[in-house]
Fold this protein.
Amino acid sequence: MEAEKLNQKYANAARSDEFGPWYVLDNAAMIFPVMSDRAATYMFRLAATLDEPVHLPSLSAALARIAPRFPYYMVDLHRGFFWNYLQPLDKVPVPVSDHRYPVQDFDVRKRGQFPFRVRARGRRIALEMHHVLSDGGGALIFFKTLLAQYFRYRGIESEPAPDVFDPDGTPHPEEYEDAYNRFFRSELPAPEPRPHAFRIVSPLLPPYQFRVITGILPVDKVKEVSKSFGVTVTELFCAAIMDALQEIRASYPAWMRRKSGPMATLEVPINMRKIYPTRTMRNFSLYFMPSVDLRLGHYDFGEIAELVHHRIKSESPDREIPRQIARNVGISRKQYVRILPLGIKEIFMRLFYNSMGKNFLSGGVSNLGLLTLPEPLSSHVTRLECLMPPSKVTCGNLGAVTWGDKIYANFGSLMKSREVERLTFKRLSSLGIPVRIECNMEDPV
Amino acid sequence: MATNVANLKMARTLFHSSAGGYYMLDNAAIIMPAISDLVATSLFRIALVLDRPVNLPVLQRALSNIAPRFPYFMVELRPGFFWYYFQPSRRPPAVIADLGSPCQGLNPRRAKGHLFRVRARGSRIACEFSHILADGYGGLIFAKTLLAEYFRLQGVVSEPAPDVFLPGTEPNPHEWEDAYHRYFRENWPHPDPRPRAFRPPSPALPLGQYRILTGVFDLAAVRQAAQSRGATVTELLTAALIFAYQGIWESLPPRARRRRECMAAVEIPVNMRRFYPSRTLRNFTLFILPAVDLRLGPYTFEELVRIVHHRVALENEEREIARQISRNAGGGRKLMVRLVPLFLKNFFARLLYDSLGEGLITGLLTNLGPMTLPSPLDERVRRFEFIPAPSRSLKTNAAVCSWKGELHVTFASRARSREVERRFFSVLSSINLRARIECESDEQAAPFREANPLSGGPR
């Protein structure tokens, strides 16, 4: 009981003092302001392509209309003595024009700006959100609510849906709780340490250039192929990327192989809202980390797929995965951690994140799966996409969305090398999946 | 599959000196003399129960007849300056009575004589082999050859079979090769370090006692139960064993639980001949070690079956298991290691065996699978029995084999407590796999009673 009360206390993110209300960052978000810069922004993106050009006044109006429903997003980041915090920002968000290079050139630490932006150009509306605010699960609801309101202004009324909020509704206090703290169990052990990951070696693109390669795949064919390997679609994508990493590693000379980490490890986020009952609109995802040891000779694609499958299935999301909460929350609750000034915390956070987070990842696969919009909106949206946050060290970050009968698989990369993308799609097409490729830069793969 | 010249040279075990021929121990066996004593005798047992009483003089003749076919088993262990070695024995092997607990009363390090015994009593013929000499595969071929010869002398000629050797034929030199060294891979990574494992607490039985408790299942029912869960029989039984450990762990007071290790890890030996072609009758077994962290529990049985299935699939691969060869055989090849005198080697062997071997294991479950015998011998054998070797720290171990539609799970235990066995059989009976329990024990204790399945689970 004692622990439960403490969890409730920590989970309550909304505070208030003589200067007004403010929000504590959730447990996962604490690290992102420290780690992000203008290129590796830790912003992710959801984008919808409509069947007609975007009507900008309607979009502005829609955004302004739904803003009061999401007070916990209408904030900016402030630096306190002990922690970063979010303070309500007395401004109305406005859409900005979209750019060829998404999720770039954004500094979350700058005051007076929202940690998200709504962008539009041509027929596309995009939401770019910084991870300090939320993860894909929260952003998706915000985005859908925005789309529904936009269409309402365009004269298309949609049916109510649980994941589309009513702009006149009042926010539930659970929506801005820190669910990590709420479901913290102190008795769980920390996760096992992991070996270092293999990374490809490549120079970076010029600053603020971000290459997005989109593969458009027919969903029934992808399902059929993954079924033939006895794996899920996410596992199939993981295996294809690992296979690409394996080939790249084999092409390196021996001394580079010895120096590089041995594992191809991918981060596969799981939406923890499916496991724990919470309505939180803040971050609440954790990770599967399937890995393959690349030192152990060449694997066939089928072998990799099988390994990924067994690795993911042997970690049950309600037992192994909460260990990550136990570690992350456990550290942040320690008295000696809390009394450190923010500057010193930041030094340790960088060390901690490099040694426990980033160094054992080669990439990631975030598959949002089949997305739906309430009728009749879905017939007006021709395409829905997502994009993982840019990273300067990992390559092969895949964000996939199933919309209609197509899977839109987006690789975002800050690196010059396109090998991972090329080999991944080559592998998928060699399995008999027709892939159409698009790229936001010249000379696509 | 790299079989280069150095590997072939290292795989050789028969050497000749001025005093005659001698054999080297294989890579798995070199550590065993150091860690075996009167408690951990390293003896495992393969017994055959016939449909009629054993004719002792005939069995003795059969043993004498087949002895020349297995020259590499007719040896005695001798300490050298750097290593132990096998010296061919001049004593003829003799059949002895099967009295007292099995697999007991032999200290291989001090023994003057053979490292195997053939025992008989009533209608049972039992072969007890030291693991220094061979693994289950080698022992089984010896036992089958002995059985075939025993029946041949009584006028029952069996059909030829690849795993029944003919007395009088020449032994193949590959039969005593050290296959670990033959399939050694240079520059292969070593296994990942693993945490130490939980041990069910129990006082030991007095020296010389080894309790054998066998559960006899209907094979088809067990197969069906495993298949319906998408697992193999071994995985199902492993999950039941882990479930038993979990029950014991959960029943400990929280303070004791915090102080104890928390991994329930079951060692499943893997016959490496499955991956690498070899005729060797010496050891050629490595193991996989599915493990479950008990702090994350309590798990349901179904969950454990699923987890064990996936963990076994991850480990049960040639390239993963080869990492053990790389570590074990690679260590033995280092000049630094080879130059150390034997008494120091023994000292380090004990340390290593605990930290890399037994310390990581809660219990062992070995599945020898379905037994086969050429006709007409199969009609004469009522039953196969396997008993794993006793060990100092792993008090309760299990061996599984199936014969004629029955699955025998034999628990051999040095522990006074029967909790592991009780919980194992009760969780299986809760999924409608009921066993007929048979117990042979010197202990004057209450007879084993199957518990209420509901009390077997975690609280």
Notes: The interface with chain A takes residues 188-189, 192, 262, 293, 295-297, 299, 303, 306-307, 310-311, 313-314, 319-320, 322-323 of chain B (CB under 8 Å). The two ends of chain B are 50 Å apart (CA to CA). The domain at 211-456 of chain B is CATH 3.30.559.30 (Chloramphenicol Acetyltransferase).
